[in-house]
Amino acid sequence: MSDNLISIENLSFGFGKTLLHKDINMQFSRGKVSAIMGGSGCGKTTILRLIGGQLTPNAGKVIVDGDIVHEQDRNGLYHMRRKMGMLFQHGALFTDLSVYENVAFPMREHTNLPENIIRDLVLLKLNAVGLRGAYDKMPAELSGGMARRVALARAIALDPDIIMYDEPFAGLDPISMAVICDLIRTLNDALGATSIIVTHDVAETFSFADYIYFLADGTVAAEGSPKQLMASKLPFVKQFIHSEKDGPVPFHADAPNYKTDLRL
Amino acid sequence: MNKLLNFFGNLGFALRSKLYRLGAGTRLFFLTLIYSADSFRRIHLTIREIYYTGVLSLVIIVVSAFFVGMVLGLQGYYTLEKYGSSEAIGVLVALALVRELGPVVTALLFAGRAGTAITAEIGLMKATEQLSAMEMMAVSPIARIIAPRFWAGMISMPILATIFSMVGILGGYFIAVLVIGVDEGAFWSQMQANVDFSNDIIDGAIKSVVFGFACTIIALFEGFDAPPTAEGVSRATTRTVVISSLTVLGLDFILTSFMFV
Amino acid sequence: MERAKIDIWVGILVALGIAALFALATKVGNLTSNDIRETYTVLAHFENIGGLKPRAPIKGAGVVVGRVKTIVFDTEAYHAVVELDIDKRYVFPKDTFANIYTSGLLGEQYIGLEAGGDEKNLLAGDLITHTQDAVVLEKLISQFLYSKASEEE
């Protein structure tokens, strides 16, 4: 059995004619927390959708636990997705259901467990994210950070093998950020799961991730453990990590000559 | 010359996008049918939607029906009186409502109230990634969200149209008999003699089922297909009302021409 | 709580719908009073049917006893052949008169049956021999003018 739960091989993908990803290779080891980083619009979230089977690659394959994702039929995809939990950028909680109902949703849809067991499980999951007391609130009553934690509780409702996070730190205050950081690491180790985080938050991610991929120009610009990347001499990595204004990713977008524009 | 070519180019593009929408809508309809099993096995999903589309539309339907019936009574009376046939007012009100106004006005009101609610709700769920989240949890959004609303619409519309016709007739009765003073016996007996159950009432019911199908599927499609932005959703709800209304009126003409002629 | 309330209201909606349909069927339509079940068909010939249409009522003593089934033109004898569907409950003698009347002044036309005195009754497929055509307004007017003119002579 391979050590890599998820493997992306020679993947090429594009929405129209232009390719977003050109022939990339990525491996995600079992039990590890991996991060995909890069500038905005470089296709990080799209990788998650490709792993989840919502999109089909133009070329190459995505393999999850030995099965090629885009070759699965409805049944195969169903079983594959049951092993995954995904945390969307703003939580994506079902607004017409309460917090309790939201976390109970996957359990009710996929299992035949009686109500009292579901109740115990829901409270267990909510407790893991620290929101057991908020079980009867509606999503509209929650703050951004709280909503995201409830969504995390929902994502781990069926104890998935793979947990995916789409920009989990975006727009959070420092305390909430620290909470989420801690939860990602703790849950990953407690559940023995494999976590993939899509983000551009350097400081937080480098503090707990095991392996990091950098995407730029449709390819993997750099990869390695946080320690390896901090010591990297690659200009792109240095610009990203040290938050430099200008470097391989230029400040000025393509524009005609400045003098001619000002008609000097 | 260029302008002329541009004009035809735009026309062609508009036609192509309309055809695309028609095709995509049909595809959604067939997917809805395929995934409909859950709507009936877990009937509470559908019942919940019947509440939101049907029960919450009751007030607007009943009030509108009463006013429409009263106007029919009023206008009809003053026109018929000129020919000395004011006792036919019952027939006029009943036939106008059962054959045309019941199904059509109900459908237009339904599209405006329930249709826009459906479009906005689904569009918003799409914009906030709730549909995507559901997909990733291995739950088909079509089975869980779209299909129950479809069947709810199909069931609610004929019920609402029938209620509309009956309340409208009561409105006409109120004005003609209680206010103006037309003979009550003549009002009902003339109506009974001239309104045929299988021809008029059943045909009206068939119309309301067809309109219910059209309005519901249009509302569902517009919501499902809406661009996931605030502007996209608001434009989608407008489209629902406009396209539903035009479709209902067009279908009404087609159905009337081979039902009642 | 939440679900119970929804279920009750949906039940009310469906009940109202059925009540409205029932009310329409009985009070508004002609489902109960004119419940014509089994019928037998007889024929009648008319020189002029006026505005008689299929499904027009056939009345005896003012009571609806049947409906006009079909109206066709006979190309050999050049008259109208009308098929009458009469409810099996009602029998008419063989020398019944079939006349075309107008309900009201400008209303729809119907067939009125007046029973004769014959002992034998009309059976399915029989022909009513005594018929009276519809009153055509133009003929009435020209008759009137003609008689007026001949009066003055």
Structural overview:
- The complex is a heterotrimer of chains A (264), B (261) and C (153).
- Helix content of chain A is 37%, strand content 22%.
- Chain A is built from ten helices and ten strands.
- The model of chain A has no long low-confidence stretch (mean pLDDT 86).
- In chain B, helix 3 (43-53) packs across helix 7 and helix 5 packs antiparallel against helix 7.
- Chain B is mainly α.
- The N and C termini of chain B lie far apart (48 Å).
- Chain C folds into two domains: 1-33; 39-138, no CATH class.
- In chain C, strands 7-1-4-3-2-6-5-8 form an eight-stranded mixed sheet, with no helix packed on it.
- The mean pLDDT of chain C is 82.
User: Tally the helices of chain B: what do you get?
Assistant: 10
* Intertermini distance of chain C: 94 Å
Describe the strand arrangement of the main beta sheet of chain C, using strand numbers: 7-1-4-3-2-6-5-8
Q: What is the chain-wise order of helices and strands of chain B?
A: HHHHHHHHHH
What structural class results from the helix and strand content of chain C?
alpha/beta
Shape of chain C: elongated
The total domain count of chain B is 1
Continuous helix count of chain C: 2
Task: Average the pLDDT over all residues of chain C and give the rounded result.
Answer: 82
Quaternary state reads heterotrimer
Report the helical percentage of chain B: over 70%
Going by helix content, strand content and strand pairing, the class of chain B is mainly alpha
Helix content of chain C: 25-40%
Pattern of helices and strands of chain C: HEEEEEEEEH
Q: Radius of gyration of chain B, rounded?
A: 22 Å
The stretches of 5 or more residues of chain B where confidence is low (pLDDT under 50) are none
**Number of strand segments of chain B:** 0
List how many beta strands of chain C DSSP finds. Answer: 8
- Straight-line N-to-C gap of chain B: 48 Å
